[in-house]
Amino acid sequence: MPSRPRLLQRPHRDDVLISLAGLVGGLIMWSLGLVSGDSFRREPEALTLVPLVVMAGAELLRRTAPAVALCVAVPALAGDQLAGSLIATIAMFTDVLYAAVVYGTPAMARKISLATVYLTVVATVVPIAVLRTPVSLLIGIAVGLVVLTPAWTGWAIREHREAAAAERLRAEQTALLAELDRREAVTAERARMARELHDMVANHLSAIAIHSTAALSLKDTAATEQALGVIRENSVRGLAEMRRLIGLLRDAGDEGAPAPAPTLDALDTLLDQAHSTAAAGSGGQEFVLRDERPDGTAPLPAPVELAAYRIVQESLTNAVKHAAPGRVDVTLARLPDGPLEVSVTSPYGADRAAPRAPGSGTGLIGMRERVSLLDGTLDAGPADGPSGTVWRVRAALPLSAENTQNPSDTAPPPIEQEPQ
Q1: Each residue's pLDDT tens digit, 54-106
Q2: Structural domains of the chain sorted by starting position, each given as residue range(s) with its CATH number in brackets
Q3: What's the pTM value of the predicted model, to 2 decimals?
Q4: Contact criterion met (CB below 8 Å) for 114 and 65
Q5: By CB neighbour count within 10 A (0-12 exposed, 13-18 middle, 19+ buried), where does 342 fall?
Q6: CA angle, corner 356, sides to 350 and 360, nearest 5?
């Protein structure tokens, strides 16, 4: 439903009270003979009340239609000066002029303020130039009090209100940005926790699932006991990793410093665990580590080394669960002033068995998130190898200065899930 024109809107309650107060005050002044000018002694005497009533009507429109109210008030003021002036009529005119500047459009407020300056200057200079008497200066002062003072008072009030509104808007925007930053921080922390939980625990749980399957399927008591031993070992390690993650989430002042993050020096242990798990599940994989980094290179930044370790860990876990029998190569390479290159190649073909443990498909997503946080690149998928098709995971991790900081401080971009 379209809104009603401002001229037809109901007057504001305060405007009605101002109009009634001005009208009653003018009537009291008129009844007491407090009318300036000789016209009061001319007939009809009630003619002075006409501008008073018109001005009171203009007061009703001071807020809803300030331009119309000013157009009505100016002729009413002129009539008041001709028919005998009442102080109440002049006072209501100053209020209408003030309201026109405060409630009118910005262009209207600027034009009225400038017009009052010009009018006051003219009303001061012309009488002095024509009459050349000290009394002529009072004309300019009177005009300034009636038009200049209310107009510029209204302009000051308007500027104050606009500044207050701008500050409120700025405060709301600041609060909104703070809330967005808080949500992004929570999202980034949740993503980091999900990656750490998956990378630290999934490897052990996969080994437990594979060894428990072997223990249930084999009738050999010695093999079953060996599988149960591996299950217990991985359970203890998984529990330790969970406790480490919980320690990271707690206050370090209460729990002490968290355990150090794993490094590439522990890759041999990872390969031994993968070999043990593959042997228990009859996967038939052989795991080989080739470190082609030159001797004497500078230490890797902690975020880069942690990301490389987690990528190898997840790739080995996937190889144990999905790869065909054959050789799994883990290669580390680093060119001078170049990125750290991590490559894990596993057999991939039609002769691969069904997955020996269920997968969620989030491992590749976690690897892509880690690499993207370091502004690196990751390629994962089937590729041609020397002896046929292989599944290759290749990551390039830049060693820039930005990667010396914690990469989990920035929320990762959304990664489209890919099948493994």
Answers
A1: 999 999 999 999 999 999 999 999 999 888 889 999 999 999 999 999 999 99
A2: 6-175 (no CATH), 185-409 (3.30.565.10)
A3: 0.53
A4: no
A5: buried
A6: 100
